[in-house]
Amino acid sequence: MLLKVDGITKAFGGVKAVQGASFDVKEGSITALIGPNGAGKTTAFNLVSGFMRPDEGTIQFDGRRTERLSGHTVARHGLVRVFQTARVFTQMTVLENLLIAARHQPGEKFGAAWLMPGRTSRREREIRREAEERLALVRLTHLTHERAGALSGGQRKLLELARALMVQPKMILLDEPMAGVAPVLGEQLMEHIKELREKAGITVLIIEHDIDLVMSISDRVIVMDEGRVIADGPPDAIQANERVITAYLGRNAGAAA
Ligand SMILES: Nc1ncnc2c1ncn2[C@@H]1O[C@H](COP(=O)(O)OP(=O)(O)OP(=O)(O)O)[C@@H](O)[C@H]1O
């Protein structure tokens, strides 16, 4: 197991967003985290990625306890979060967005020298080649020198994904990557996610509301409801699970009433 989450709890005032949730993510898997609105999925992501500290419980990533570490440190250990809203630098080109991300790699001490023509070392050329590879992986090569601000929402998400890959993560957390993306680009994005696992061996944990998509892409599905993990298993078993059906249908019936 690459990630082991044991009994994490997080409350905001009186609201227990996550209540003693435990789950594991196997190395090399695509695992989906699903559940009705307010189930605690985003809070669980915040805890796992070091953006928040749990009130209780432990988190182990790649054999190391991480629940007290900052998001920055967790990312340096190889667990990187890709945001629902792409946070690209709009004034920079697509390529520059990736080069900047590489600066935060462990061991990178130099400044923005490689953004200046004529001052490229071997390492800088390597980084540039890596950036070009990442852009090819998400099919953005044709936009390499375009200003990031000119990209569509879906393209920005692909850029954000490529940027997260610049730090060579072992695992990425994707929060609703399909939200607001045109269907054609969404399908491509899914293909890229599968390729990440197949070609780069990256482990993926994904929050996604589109159940059909979750069922088609993931090896395992973890279901949360009211801050707890209520089911965990392969997609077909989850689809047939009575507690899961009740959690979703019960909520929908309530909303319709
Ligand atoms: N920073 C916060 N302050 C107060 N309450 C919060 C905060 N973050 C989350 N909550 C509450 O915690 C509960 C779980 O929220 P969370 O966003 O983790 O659920 P979710 O499963 O990601 O939902 P959605 O699918 O709607 O994004 C909700 O009741 C939410 O209102």
TrEMBL record:
All copies of domain ABC transporter, residue ranges: 3-251
SUPFAM superfamilies listed in its UniProt record: P-loop containing nucleoside triphosphate hydrolases
UniProt KW Chloroplast keyword: no
Keywords: ATP-binding, Nucleotide-binding, Transport
Pfam family membership, one: ABC_tran
Database matches in CDD domains: ABC_Mj1267_LivG_branched
Family to which this protein belongs: Belongs to the ABC transporter superfamily.
UniProt-recorded name of the protein: ABC-type branched-subunit amino acid transport system ATPase component
Lineage: Bacteria, Pseudomonadati, Pseudomonadota, Alphaproteobacteria, Hyphomicrobiales
